[in-house]
Amino acid sequence: MRKNILSLFILSLFCQIAFTQTIIQRDPEIDKMVKEVSADSLKSYIYKMVSFGTRSTLSTQPSTTRGIAAARDWVLSKFNEFGKQSNGRLTAFIDTTIYKADNNRVSRDIVLGNVVATLKGTDPNDKRIFLISGHLDNMRTSPTDSTGDAPGANDDGSGSAAVIECARIMSKHAFPATVIFVTVSGEEQGLLGAYYMANKAKKENWNIEAVLNNDIMGSNNTSETKIIDNTRIRVFSEGLSVLDTGKVATNIRNLGLENDGKARQLARYVKEIGERYVENLEVVMVYRNDRFLRGGDHTPYVLNGYAAVRITEMNENYYHQHQNVRMENGIQYGDLPEFMDFEYLRKNTAMNLSNLANLSKAPAMPEEVKVEVKNLNNYTSLNWKAPKSGKVKGYYILMRETTSAFWQKKFFTTQNEYTLPYSKDNYFFAVQSVGEDGNESLAVIPGVSRR
Questions:
Q1: CA dihedral 166, 172, 177, 180 (to 10 degrees)
Q2: Where are the domains of the chain?
Q3: SS3 track for 183-245
Q4: What is the pLDDT of residues 67-85, one digit of tens each?
Q5: Fold of 367-449
Q6: What is the pLDDT of residues 100-145, one digit of tens each?
Q7: CATH of domain 28-361
């Protein structure tokens, strides 16, 4: 009898533990897309880009087999190939401008061109745009050397390959919001292509909600320290925008929101969604806009007020960046494809795809999110309005301690208001819209309401 009681107790305890486990809920459509990301496809893109000899922005323009123009035409051909499976929703072109010599890294007038593919959203009321970027150009040790061979396999063949692979897979699916896939030129000359596109977006009032810039994300080992690790990827994000001045800056200081700018919120989102869909990958948030002595194509978007982050491998190898190909003191220099880890690149590409798909399937962010502060109490009361577009199943209220980097709790509601038994003085809160398939919008930090 005692043995039976003990067995029942153990079974009951096991059931309780199993019931309380957190189950990761994945959208089946996105899960299927993630599984389609192919290391072999990515490898083929890398080797094709390397075959152009050099992709320097200053390289010979008229050639059909060598240089940046030939590489751009090839990327365009891939986008057009994918467009045939999109029912007309994916269209592509090379967006060009004449860039004048600047007596710095551009010694003569050049044709600057970005290869842009747009996957049009299916909801005419949804004006949101989500953008993924990599830079097609590369460089040798000298940024003005436009004639010597420069493989550029990882910098930034890896980011461009990720863009192309995401376009291949996502073009077969429909999303309410619009997704833009772009490989830019002129990064090594001073982020020229990204500035051209970001400034154009600002001038034409594009509603860009997120930019995922991928630059150097396909190798798994460091120079000097010799660390080898293909299970971690960095996401760089700024905490405050240069546009946060005056009353906005004062409000940020008063509420302690220095760690809750748009880019930082996007980085949190990238981490949560990426780790949800991609096995054996940790997304490491770095609280900087970029690395020391370096700059990335997300920065022009950041400076124009958009939420933009840089995604980069965890362990960089400087023997294989901005180096002429050579053997010196027993060390092989040069950005060669044999130093790539294509399984690592597959995971990092899948992480990008899961985020793009989740964002573009989700409803828009909730509007006018407010926290009530009219009374002294130990509760937190939030209210908001429905998003401008998208079908909403409900909302997540997110909560974390003020010292925490990540959201720690989620509360679901179908209402447009929610009261929690946690003091607003002790925690940060945010609200997300949740779609019918469980896809979440970006989080919105509440403003203050004294009504």
A1: 40
A2: 28-361, 367-449
A3: EECCCCCCCHHHHHHHHHHHHCCCEEEEEEEECCCCCCECCCCCCECCCEEEEECCCCCCCCC
A4: 999 999 999 999 999 999 9
A5: Immunoglobulin-like (2.60.40)
A6: 999 889 989 999 999 999 999 999 999 999 999 999 999 999 999 9
A7: 3.40.630.10
